[in-house]
Amino acid sequence: MYRAATYVALSNELDDDFEKIITILKENPISFGTSSEGQLVYVGEVDVTHAIRQNDVTNAVSRISAIPEIRAYLVDAQREIASHGGIVMDGRDIGTVVLPDAELKIFLVASVEERAERRYKENLAKGILTDYEQLKFEIAERDRKDSTREVSPLKQADDAILIDTTGMGIAAVVSKIKSFVK
């Protein structure tokens, strides 16, 4: 959702004008769908699934997501989605801020190198040209920014289960999470 808000900011040249960003999001709510390729993300009727993974959005998302008014608006939207139950949410403050009373909290981590390698392969598969070393730097920098921001910093909730996914494939991660669900 923060990537979608960042996409709105960038595509409308709004910089950090949170009032205009929120107005656009209210008029064009973020929603989700599914396809054979996975989750789809929409802003209004526009499919932004691939656009929100482009380098310009990735490089700006920490800045836009640090704006308190944007965070407040999206936290409310996330809580509304969760209020219907039966939801799995991921994000950097889901367990600490958005859903502090969630039934199960998993805090996934992996080395910067592992995450860069995953994103690099994902980007190449989607036709997004990416420099691996630059990607490593950007991931580490985003972690630093998100961990030190004043509003809703990235941190593990006290009652979250830590899983280090470095060296694990998707099936192994899913199996590990399922063992805690049971």
TrEMBL record:
Keywords: ATP-binding, Kinase, Nucleotide-binding, Transferase
Organism: Pseudolactococcus chungangensis CAU 28 = DSM 22330
Protein name, UniProt field: (d)CMP kinase
Presence of the UniProt keyword Metal-binding in the record: no
Domain Cytidylate kinase, residue spans: 1-179
SUPFAM superfamilies: P-loop containing nucleoside triphosphate hydrolases
Family of this protein: Belongs to the cytidylate kinase family. Type 1 subfamily.
EC class: transferase
